Amino acid sequence: MRLLIVEDERRLARSLAQGLTAEGFAVDVVHNGTDGLHRATEHEYDLIILDIMLPGLNGYRVCAALRAAGDETPILMLTAKDGEYDEAEGLDTGADDYLTKPFSYVVLVARVRALLRRRGRGAAPELRVGDLVVDRGARRVVYAGVETSLTAKEFAVLEHLASRAGEVVSKAEILEHSWDFAYDGDPNIVEVYVSALRRKLGASLIVTVRGAGYRLVAPRG
Q1: Could you give the angle at the alpha carbon of 129 between the alpha carbons of 126 and 135, nearest 5°?
Q2: Residue 3 bridge partners (DSSP)
Q3: C-beta separation of 143 from 131 below 8 A
Q4: How far apart are CA 48 and CA 130, in angstroms?
Q5: What tens digit of pLDDT does each residue of 160-184 get?
Q6: Could you tell me if 48 and 3 are in contact, meaning their C-beta atoms sit under 8 angstroms apart?
Q7: Which residues, in sequence order, are bridge partners of residue 126?
Q8: CA 51 remoteness from chain centre
C-alpha cells in the first residue's frame, strides 16, 4: 500500500517514513501543504498522514480541497495543537482520524492500519484466491493450509498481485504500488521478489506473461 506523509518537521517525517517502510508500505514524503495537495491530486494513495501546521497551505485547507474534489482517501491528521476545537475542525474538514503530537509510533501504526481496514475503497481485510489467503490486517499469508513468513516487501508485492488476481500486472505497476515515488533503481528488482515468492509459495503461483508482466493464479492444492 502507498502512503503520503505531508509533514514539515523533517526529522519526524524521515522517522515516520523509515518506520512505515519497514512495515511494508511504500511511502512518499513532502514538506509543505502545496506540494502535499499536488502530490495527492496527481497520484493515488491508500492513506495520507497530514500535519495541520504546514507552510504554504495548512492541513485543514489541503484536506478540504481534497474532499471538495471528491477524493475519499483516508486522512490521518497530525498536530501539535491540542483541544476539542482543533479536533472538531480537523474532522469537520473531512479528516478520518486525528493524532496529537507527541504521539506513540505504535499508536500511529495502529491508527493507520485501522483506517486502511475501513477505507472507502471496498477493500476486503482478506484476499482469497483459490487456496491462497492474504490477511491484510494481520499481515499473514496462508497457502494450501500452511502459513508462510514473508518479508515486508514480499508481502507488499504479493498483496498487490492478489488484489489483481487473474489480471496481468506489469513491473511498472508493481513498482508504483510497492516502492516509493523516489525509487530510481533497477526495475528488475521486481523479478527478485517474484522469485522469492515462488520459492516460498510454489513455482506455479505466479505466471510470467512474457513482455507484459505477471499474473497470480493460485491453483488449488
Answers
A1: 20
A2: 27, 47
A3: yes
A4: 32
A5: 899 888 899 998 888 877 776 556 6
A6: yes
A7: 135
A8: 18
Of 114, 105, 123, 205, which is closest to residue 157 (Cα–Cα)? Answer: 205
Which residue is listed with cell 475501513?
118
Give the span between the Cα atoms of 142 and 205, in whole angstroms. Answer: 13
3-state secondary structure of 66: helix
Give the highest mean pLDDT range of 40-54, 91-105, 110-124: 40-54
Q: Enumerate residues 6+ apart whose C-beta is below 8 A from 197.
A: 150, 154, 157, 158, 205, 206
Report the C-alpha gap between 60 and 89 in whole angstroms: 8
In our burial notation (b when 16+ CB lie closer than 10 A, e otherwise), range 157-170 reads bbbbbbbbbeeebe
* CA gap 59, 209 in Å, rounded: 43
Three-class SS of residue 136?
coil
**Within a 10 A sphere around the Cβ of 214, how many other Cβ atoms?**
25
pTM of the model: 0.63
203 burial (CB, 10 Å; 0-12 / 13-18 / 19+) is exposed
